[in-house]
């Protein structure tokens, strides 16, 4: 199963990526990547990987080609982005920042990083160009679906979403470290702003979850449910 991205800047500059959703970390391929992809280079404080098993950060290895392709380009540059998933196709003219945010997100969520890999259910149902509201709704819906199966299968469900908050608190540490990892290598702001947008959407799950819940409540509650 794969997701394909095609980003067109003009008649002469087109970039294509095929993201296999079930891929493994390849140590030999990792050796050919830049030094900023090494595991110990601004390694996340909560990283569970050892340099004996992983010489390089799996997410950085997967991302380095995209980072280098768009290095030096402005975030506001317009791009035509076409996305093909196994179910459907999407096409939209967006800023390079928005297109990259969508691409970087699906690559990170399907990397061999065990922390980012917790977002893989989102990638398996990838929605390009998702708004912050769509991101919140899909994240909470998938988490609650998991709790329902925990309940059915005899495990304790987390209906209060405490585990979801802890999960995104861990991802915040990854976000901070990854920002440091790529900051020095990025000349333009397209990559950096794409990461910032992705990170800010993730942070909303920890610093303002209750506010986000109130925003999506009208989307899932009928007038009868709301007592109106």
Give a written overview of the molecule.
With 228 residues, this protein is α+β, with helices and mostly antiparallel strands. It has one domain. The chain has helices spanning 27-30, 58-69, 96-109, 120-124, 132-152, 162-183, 190-207, 209-220, and strands at 2-10, 13-20, 78-84, 89-95. The protein has a four-stranded antiparallel β-sheet, covered by helices on one side. Helix 2 runs antiparallel to helix 3, helix 3 (96-109) crosses helix 7 (190-207) and helix 6 packs antiparallel against helix 7. The longest helix has 22 residues, at 162-183. It is globular and about 55 Å long.
* Basic shape: globular
Strand order of the largest sheet: 2-1-3-4
Measured by DSSP, the beta-strand proportion falls in 5-15%
Q: Helix count?
A: 8
Unreliable stretches (pLDDT < 50, length at least 5) are: none
Structural class: alpha+beta
Cα-to-Cα separation, first versus last residue: 44 Å
Number of domains: 1
What is the helix fraction of residues, given as a range?
A: 40-55%
Summarize the helix and strand pattern as letters: EEHHEEHHHHHH
Provide the residue-averaged pLDDT.
Answer: 89
Major β-sheet, in short? 4 strands, antiparallel
Using the CA coordinates, give the radius of gyration: 18 Å
Overall number of strands: 4
Short characterization:
This protein is α+β, with helices and mostly antiparallel strands and 228 residues long.
Identify the notable features of this structure and list them briefly.
228 residues; alpha+beta; four-stranded antiparallel beta sheet; 8 helices; 4 strands; 47% helix; 14% strand
